[in-house]
Amino acid sequence: MWSFDPLLTFLVVLTVVLFILTLYSILQENLALFNIKPTRFLSFKMLDTESSASLFVTLLGALVVRHQFVLGLRPRIGYKTMYATKELGPDSKEFCATWQVRIRNAGQGTAIINRSAFELETSPPKSNSSLHVLREVVKELAKSGLVRHKDYWLENITDGFTLPPKEECIVFEIKSEHVSKIKRLNMLLYFQGLLGDKYYRKILFIPPGI
Questions:
Q1: How is residue 70 annotated by DSSP?
Q2: What CA–CA distance (Å, rounded) separates 137 from 114?
Q3: Verdict on whether the full-model pTM lies above 0.85
Q4: Is 22 among the domain residues?
Q5: In the listed set 55, 71, 87, which residue is the last one of a domain according to the structure?
Q6: What are the Cα distances from residue 80, in Å, to 67, 142, 162, 205, 206?
Q7: Tens digits of per-residue pLDDT, 1-40?
Q8: Are residues 34 and 94 in the same domain?
Q9: What are the beta bridge partners of residue 199?
């Protein structure tokens, strides 16, 4: 998701203006070469070619440096889904087959969570697919006989939760035998980087065809 950056916009506009001035200065100094007759417009001197070109290169370099700096602080959240096994309890040696969803920050900057919401549709339908908060999801899944921390595990990602670069965490896990009870469950994750740049990611907990 793109967010307006006043400083970046100013630098880009100024760089473009200086690029045009550089071309204008080159044209002024080479009218005979281009077989152009001098006019009042072309006689108006603002900057010589050397000065305008020097300023243009300086600003262009500043934009490149800033771009590299921003990339170094930009988060990028991805996710993966897989079948896994889970221990039934801390003192239990029994395991169960589960469907697991992990999110990972593949970017170079920390991801700061601003808000999360859920789209839920159970099978057979007991709830619609409107946006829900966590407690509403737990309540709706209970109508299908699913108990949190027993039949499934859903991470409570609160506002302000941070995910450092290259780190990952499990956000959802459900026993394989219960997957068919959920037709659709998506997480809508709103997050930002350290510079305030804002992003949005939709995570499909139950992909079609699973």
A1: H
A2: 19
A3: no
A4: yes
A5: 71
A6: 29, 26, 19, 9, 11
A7: 445 567 667 778 888 888 888 887 877 777 666 677 767 6
A8: no
A9: 191
